[in-house]
Design goal:
82 residues, mainly beta, 4-stranded antiparallel beta sheet, 3-stranded antiparallel beta sheet, 40% strand, globular
Length: 82
């Protein structure tokens, strides 16, 4: 799973690297303060769990992130076998 980590005012946030609107990687987007904008134009607030700023239906998928003496770790979901 591709993961996107953003730093806003010294705080790290982690998300699945996919736009909720178009599915494109958010790593190709632009971060301006706490607003992450996808190349498709969709905007998200990274400090508010990836809430969509263009409508409540779209939001980024946040991932748990831990910073400690071992570095930065992100918990990603385990794929469920079908």
């Amino acid at each position: 799973m591709a993961v996107l980590v953003c730093a806003v005012r010294g705080t790290l946030y982690a998300y699945r690297d996919a736009c909720a609107s178009c599915g494109s990687p958010m790593g190709a987007g632009r971060l301006d303060r706490e607003v992450l904008t996808c190349p498709c134009g969709a905007r998200y607030d990274v400090c508010r769990a990836g809430a969509g700023l263009d409508g409540p239906a779209a939001h980024l998928d946040p991932l748990p992130l831990l910073t400690d003496s071992q570095g930065v770790r992100v918990a990603v979901p385990v794929a469920v076998p079908s």
